[in-house]
Design brief:
By secondary structure, the protein is of the alpha/beta class. The protein has a domain of 195 residues: Spore Coat Polysaccharide Biosynthesis Protein SpsA, Chain A (Alpha-Beta Complex), CATH 3.90.550. The chain is built from nine helices and 15 strands. Strand 2, helix 2 and strand 3 form a beta-alpha-beta unit. It is globular and about 50 Å long. The chain starts with a strand and ends with a strand.
């Protein structure tokens, strides 16, 4: 059984991505890890080279700054890595996503168990979305509770939309023509992804947002929504929960370097009455009603 990881990053140091921790966390699981490195000016590539891992293979790219619709640049970069994988499992871990070392034995077991099951096309991972600092997670309807992160090659799978998920296509031409593709048949496993997208210094978080808006919106939108110079307000959120678990060991240095304070104020909740009601139903039943799912879940498997 071969497992190949793939990810992409550009100016990861400038925007505070824990990409080195992400890469380190997946290396024990994969035979090779493809890192698609965009044209960076901050030492991102050099930092990856300094890891000195024989498993890491860098693909250098230039970002097409004209890809300004729906985050397509991210799908393009993801597909550049995916195209390097020809057999076995493909494992996608984004630059702000990290695996916990305690979950790696179970992950290997799941990958081995389903490798020869033709009815299973991919594995579905639960997410911990950290918010504000390393003590809070966001698990409301405004976040995705699960995503596909491992899938089998040879099925015509491509990144869907902005690379958040994946779908199956009859051909690359069909994908390029804008066909919607087919949802993957997946098994949910109990190996969480630690997602740190909204854990940065508030000034850096605002800087990141101002820059990345251009990959979803045209110039007219950017003019109407002028870049803000204010710090990102982490209390402008619907609902957070206290995280009581441990973080991956590879995140220790990043967590130690935290240089801002965050005090959660639930009285400032932005949750609508409708979402509050649906959230209460979800808490009571374990079911998220009317939720969008970019996959066909056929089973659950626990360690």
């Amino acid at each position: 059984m071969k497992v190949t990881g793939f990810t992409y990053v550009r100016n990861g140091l400038t925007y505070g991505y824990p990409f080195l921790a992400s890469i380190k966390s997946i290396l024990p699981v994969v035979d090779e890890h493809i890192v698609v490195v965009g044209d960076s000016q901050d030492g991102t590539r050099e930092a990856i080279v300094a890891l000195d891992s024989p498993k890491v293979r860098i693909i250098d790219t230039q970002w097409d700054m004209q890809l300004r619709e729906g985050g397509k640049i991210f799908a393009q970069q993801s597909n550049l890595g995916l195209d390097q994988i020809t057999e076995g499992w493909a494992f996608h871990l984004q630059a702000d996503e990290v695996l916990h070392e305690n979950d790696l034995p179970a992950l290997r077991d799941h990958l081995t168990y389903f490798a020869d099951r033709p009815d299973v096309e991919g594995l579905l991972f639960p997410f911990y979305h950290f918010w504000g600092d390393y003590h809070y997670i966001r698990r409301t309807r405004r976040t995705h509770p699960f995503e596909i992160r491992a899938f089998k090659t040879g099925l015509g799978i491509r990144s869907y939309r902005d690379s958040q998920g994946f779908r199956k296509y009859p051909s690359v031409a069909a994908y390029d023509a804008g066909e919607k593709g087919t949802k993957l048949k997946v098994v949910e496993i109990d190996v969480p992804i630690y997602h740190y997208s909204y854990v940065r210094d508030p000034q850096l978080m605002r800087k990141k947002g101002n820059f990345f808006h251009r990959f979803w919106h045209a110039d007219q939108w950017l003019k109407q929504h002028a870049a803000s110079e204010q710090d990102f307000d982490y209390n402008d959120v619907d609902l957070l929960e206290r995280f009581e678990g441990s973080h991956p060991a590879v995140m220790a240095d990043t967590i130690r370097q935290k240089n801002w304070d965050f005090t959660y104020d639930p009285s400032r909740s932005t949750m609508s009455l409708k979402d509050r009601l649906l959230h209460q139903i979800e808490q009571a039943t374990g079911k998220r009603l009317f939720a969008y799912r970019n996959y066909e879940r056929i089973a659950r498997r626990h360690r």
